[in-house]
Amino acid sequence: MVDSVDRQLLDILKDNARLSFADLGRKINLSPSAVRERVQKLEEFEVIQKYTLQVDHKKLGNDLEAFILLKVFPGQLKNILKKIKDYPEIEEAHRVTGSQNIHLKVVVKNQLSLQRLLDELMNFSDTNTFLILSKV
Amino acid sequence: MVDSVDRQLLDILKDNARLSFADLGRKINLSPSAVRERVQKLEEFEVIQKYTLQVDHKKLGNDLEAFILLKVFPGQLKNILKKIKDYPEIEEAHRVTGSQNIHLKVVVKNQLSLQRLLDELMNFSDTNTFLILSKV
Amino acid sequence: MVDSVDRQLLDILKDNARLSFADLGRKINLSPSAVRERVQKLEEFEVIQKYTLQVDHKKLGNDLEAFILLKVFPGQLKNILKKIKDYPEIEEAHRVTGSQNIHLKVVVKNQLSLQRLLDELMNFSDTNTFLILSKV
Amino acid sequence: MVDSVDRQLLDILKDNARLSFADLGRKINLSPSAVRERVQKLEEFEVIQKYTLQVDHKKLGNDLEAFILLKVFPGQLKNILKKIKDYPEIEEAHRVTGSQNIHLKVVVKNQLSLQRLLDELMNFSDTNTFLILSKV
Amino acid sequence: MVDSVDRQLLDILKDNARLSFADLGRKINLSPSAVRERVQKLEEFEVIQKYTLQVDHKKLGNDLEAFILLKVFPGQLKNILKKIKDYPEIEEAHRVTGSQNIHLKVVVKNQLSLQRLLDELMNFSDTNTFLILSKV
Amino acid sequence: MVDSVDRQLLDILKDNARLSFADLGRKINLSPSAVRERVQKLEEFEVIQKYTLQVDHKKLGNDLEAFILLKVFPGQLKNILKKIKDYPEIEEAHRVTGSQNIHLKVVVKNQLSLQRLLDELMNFSDTNTFLILSKV
Amino acid sequence: MVDSVDRQLLDILKDNARLSFADLGRKINLSPSAVRERVQKLEEFEVIQKYTLQVDHKKLGNDLEAFILLKVFPGQLKNILKKIKDYPEIEEAHRVTGSQNIHLKVVVKNQLSLQRLLDELMNFSDTNTFLILSKV
Amino acid sequence: MVDSVDRQLLDILKDNARLSFADLGRKINLSPSAVRERVQKLEEFEVIQKYTLQVDHKKLGNDLEAFILLKVFPGQLKNILKKIKDYPEIEEAHRVTGSQNIHLKVVVKNQLSLQRLLDELMNFSDTNTFLILSKV
User: How far is the C-alpha of D115 from the C-alpha of H98, rounded, in Å?
Assistant: First the structure.
């Protein structure tokens, strides 16, 4: 279903999701309309799920980024899955295997905001927090 | 430097990074050129780092996604930081605190590709792998 | 009670439990009836507990195999021991020493089926899941 | 490729892999030759990998069964994968994810034989041993 | 706000917080009144939080010093934060990230007083105690 | 050797180590010279080890405080004990029992300074870092 | 209170607690009555707490010896301390620091007796069992 | 081989290994010579391995008792097994299963002697130390 030209397109969009169909076409020797058709097909079949952006959190006043692994307390799984949607600090959340059950990526203003978030999460689960030092 | 209108713009772009300046403007009652100016300023000051996309890895033939925590062997930090760039399976890599040093997000075809990747990583570090079950 | 000829027989059957008494006899220079007598004695004294088979789970549509270690919640031991019988995904279950109490081998269709199983087990115990990558 | 009748056959053989084609046929209302054909197809496509048997290890003089998780030392993966084949005490071996790399099932005569095996394995890896208490 | 002379002053006071303004002035070539002014400003802006002292606990009859990491039980965070104030054995307490939530430094008379303290803390949290062997 | 009046004096000095002998005397109904004598005796017998101060590290430009537990690599104990003296970021260092050997308290400017410190420590030991969120 | 001759006596008794006063005296050049006096004084001051013996548990039909570390559940400390006295399988019990609270040495007939003991202990605490392989 | 009267004798000797044959006989209605015969048989068949004594270590100037679990470094097993014999602080040593390999019981004068012992052991293994708080 997805051929090698599609994969090229996806690779390019991954690096710059705002390129116009014309710019995309120039990079892979296709007409803008041929690109548009392929991209629309990739969107329709939900190969492409979302166009999004990466920001510099420090420049937005959020000094700390962290991964948090949660080991959910007995009977609290449903509650915490609902709650996760309500915290704007939580950027990403995944169910995972291992001795913990949920993996979060969070962005917070400072130590006190991280503590407030942990205080909330501690009602539902044990938490293990890994501060992000830098991107490799 | 970043005002509340900028933050609105960033929120909208986070959900759909391909919206045109006209569409963005309509959503926040600004002219396309005013939007363009703001977006360009956010790019210039590197508040916006990258426009990118999320894909459905299963539909691209990659059945397994996982987080891997690495505890780097003595003297191997520089080597592994270089190597990480070479593995296409590694989507994201961060230096972190905790009892491990590096946090990876990987996307692989199947168990054997995951094993091959782990075989490589085991030359530089202890590995702890958490299979991703679903996105919350 | 079990002599070295019996042990030879058991070794051969372990590799191919469907061999006829005649075939078994040929391999160890015994008459079919002598083999039958020995095998029946081994069954009678329950040295042989079961003839069984190994299948390729992937070919049956089950993409993931895993070991799961359970640390049972206070007061839930009896409940979980009963429940284990009801899950067809659980191939083997043993009580073990260590910081966990029960060791499972499970075969599931995919990540979502594994998640559903873990959701159930999480009512009775902490879970630690090890994905099987390959057989050595 | 594998239909519901095949699955029935596999379930029956899993409980008693030595049943004759006639006995199998009686259980699922098929002629012996139809059963034979199906079983041969399942063998041919390697859905069935092996007919084997379960024995009572205590009755064969082996008092201890255990799972051992190995965290392989840097550079020792290939060596230990080779070595594992040489130890008759090792019943099963799998590559796994988690903070360890290899999962073993072992059957040994007594504490001293377990110690001797661990002494060997300790040349290649950290070991974590879980004594099997009973089958659930 | 804090210049390099202030930092010098802070470094000297950290080694001997009882030095007179005259003595401090002599060490950094400032008049006593200039020192006084700077110190008062550092106190006013709460750069300096407290002048304190280090004692030899063994000489005061307290044989054991330890760090204790607490993993607070569900719903017990507020209770333990209040309780911590009441134990004179607890010298310092911090909220921390990691798999535990609170980090204590305690000074106790002997093993039995440590046990009594742990018995109390065990009502609110799991405890992990590290005996201090010496100061580096 | 240390009587209850001495203990009162130590408690007062712990809260404010810069109080004059006159102020100290007023608080416990002793003449300044009697206080001086007692304090000098406590210094002489090294009950008092040091007068020091607590500062607000954030106000000095150091955004992160953390505890780091080190598990020293084979043969590296002497090296790391020497090195610890050289890092100004390390506020306190203790030898401890537990599965790690050394306990540090560190104060650093930001994530990158913490990473640089960890890069150094990783030459001698495994590190486990707990970010300090607040003082209780 | 305890001099070097007493220590010699204690060392000898530790190796053979049934030696007569005459035999003890011969080994350290003292009269039987002088030895008796010293031993009685050591008993009186409770330096000697108990004369006991070491047996070969296997020869008494107990095949397994193990250490068990218990992490007591909230509110169960008193209950388990009482219960411990009732289990004849528990040879020694100590309160300890670390992430667990109680350290047991147990001697049991076989895997099933160990499982029965663990089933009981699991009502009060998490258990972590280390099988004893041999005495060094 | 060991009958119920022998077991009674062993139980009594475990509580007081210095009782005379006459005293032992009175407790179980046997003549002194019959007791002697039984005891000698138990010694001969090495059911009884050693008569020993329990002392109050604090009264002998040893303030700290601890269990230490060792995870032996690759290639160091033989060395450490030899070394263990040389440390008088080590009261008992066992090979164990679990993630560590050797279990020690040690008695030391104070924190510095414990540190010196750990410094030695750290040449051969990772150490995990549990301070004994009291006997249950």
Answer: 12
How far apart, in whole angstroms, are the C-alpha atoms of residue E16 and residue E10?
10
Using a 10 angstrom Cβ sphere, with 0-12 exposed, 13-18 middle and 19 or more buried, the burial of residue F5 is middle
DSSP track, B75-93: T-HHHHHHHHTT-TTEEEE
Report ipTM (2 d.p.): 0.92
In chain H, ranges of CATH 3.30.70.920 domains: 58-131
Q: Which of A66, A122, A123 sits opposite E101 (nearest CB)?
A: A122
- Thinking of the domain G4-44, which architecture would CATH place it in? Orthogonal Bundle (1.10)
Question: Which residues in chain C are classed under CATH 3.30.70.920?
Answer: 61-131
Please tell me which residue of chain D has the smallest CA distance to G115.
D133
| CATH class, range H58-131 | alpha beta
How far is residue F106's CA from residue F110's CA, in Å, rounded to a whole number?
Answer: 11
Would the pLDDT of D109 be above 90?
A: yes
The shortest C-alpha distance from D13 to chain G (Å) reads 30
Give the separation between CA D96 and CA C66, rounded to whole angstroms: 8
Would the CB atoms of B111 and C129 count as touching at under 8 Å?
Answer: no
Decide if G71 contacts H101 (C-beta within 8 A). Answer: no
Check CB contact under 8 Å for C122 and A71. no
Q: Is the pLDDT of residue C12 over 80?
A: yes
As given in the structure block, the two tokens for residue B29 are: 């009652």
Asked if residue E20 lies in contact with residue E9, where contact means CB atoms within 8 angstroms, the answer is: no
Minimal Cα–Cα distance from B32 to chain F, Å?
38
| Interface with chain F: mutation pick from H76, H104, H111, H128, highest number of F CBs within 10 Å | H128
Q: Do H95 and D115 touch (CB under 8 A)?
A: yes
Give the pair of three-digit tokens for residue A119: 């205080």
Contact G100, H128 (CB under 8 A): no
Residue E75 to residue E60: CA distance in whole angstroms: 37
G interface with E, Cβ–Cβ below 8 Å: 71-72, 74-75, 77, 95, 97-99, 101
Provide the CATH topology of domain C61-131.
Alpha-Beta Plaits (3.30.70)
Reported confidence tier of residue G1, pLDDT bands at 50, 70, 90: confident
With beta carbons under 8 A apart, name residues in chain A contacting C123. Answer: 74-75
Q: What is the pLDDT of residue A63?
A: 93
Distance, in Å, from the CA atom of C66 to the CA atom of C125, rounded to the nearest integer, reads: 17
Average confidence score pLDDT of chain G: 95
Neighbouring CB atoms inside 10 A of B63's CB total: 17
Spatial distance between the Cα atoms of C47 and C32, rounded to a whole number of angstroms: 20
CA distance H1 to C4: 30
Average pLDDT, whole number, for chain B? Answer: 95
B neighbours by CB contacts (3+ pairs under 8 Å): A, C, D, F
User: pLDDT-derived band of residue D49, with 50, 70 and 90 as boundaries?
Assistant: very high
Yes or no, beta carbons of A128 and E98 under 8 Å apart: yes
CA distances to A29, A40, E106, G53 from G90, rounded to whole Å, are: 78, 71, 32, 16
How far, in Å, CA of A21 to CA of E5, rounded?
60
With contact defined as beta carbons under 8 Å apart, do B32 and B22 qualify? yes
| Residue among F114, F128, F131 minimizing CB distance to B99 | F128
Chain H neighbors of G45, CB-CB under 8 A: 59
| Chain C residues close to G130, C-beta within 8 Å | 97
Identify the CATH number of the domain defined by range A57-131. 3.30.70.920
- Element housing D65 (H / E): strand D64-72
**Of the candidates E109, E27, E125, the residue with the CA atom closest to the CA atom of residue E69:** E125
Residue of B nearest to D126 (CA): B126
Q: Where in chain H is the domain with CATH 1.10.10.10?
A: 4-44
Bridge partner list, H10: none
Taking Cα atoms as reference points, which of D67, F122, D99, D119 lies closest to residue B122? D99
